[in-house]
Design goal:
There is one protein chain. With 80 residues, the protein is an alpha/beta fold. It has one domain: Alpha-Beta Complex (inorganic pyrophosphatase (n-terminal core)). A 3-stranded parallel beta sheet has the order 1-2-3. It is globular, with a radius of gyration of 14 Å. It starts with a helix and ends in a 9-residue tail after the last helix.
Length: 80
């Protein structure tokens, strides 16, 4: 896991907004030079993320992802 994180160009963090929630992996994530992206619904996200969606008014991260897909041109790819 450490090797994969250290070689990553982008790290997507879904449904958690603080690296400390990953316990032992937190230092590896924090030290990574990868672009860090958050998609989350919890309050008080860390400021370590360069990009993302932090929407605490949503009930879940899944809802955020679903709404994003619906607003894109990829809705036809959903298999519901």
């Amino acid at each position: 896991v450490k090797k994969a994180v250290s070689e990553a160009d982008v790290i997507f963090s879904l449904d958690y907004n603080q690296f400390s929630r990953t316990k032992f992996l937190a230092p590896v994530l924090e030290q990574s030079n990868a672009v860090k992206v958050i998609i989350d619904h919890h309050l008080f996200p860390d400021d370590i993320f360069e990009y993302g969606l932090s929407l605490p008014d949503k009930s879940s991260t899944c809802e955020i992802v679903y709404d994003y897909i619906l607003s894109s041109s990829y809705e036809h790819l959903l298999n519901l």
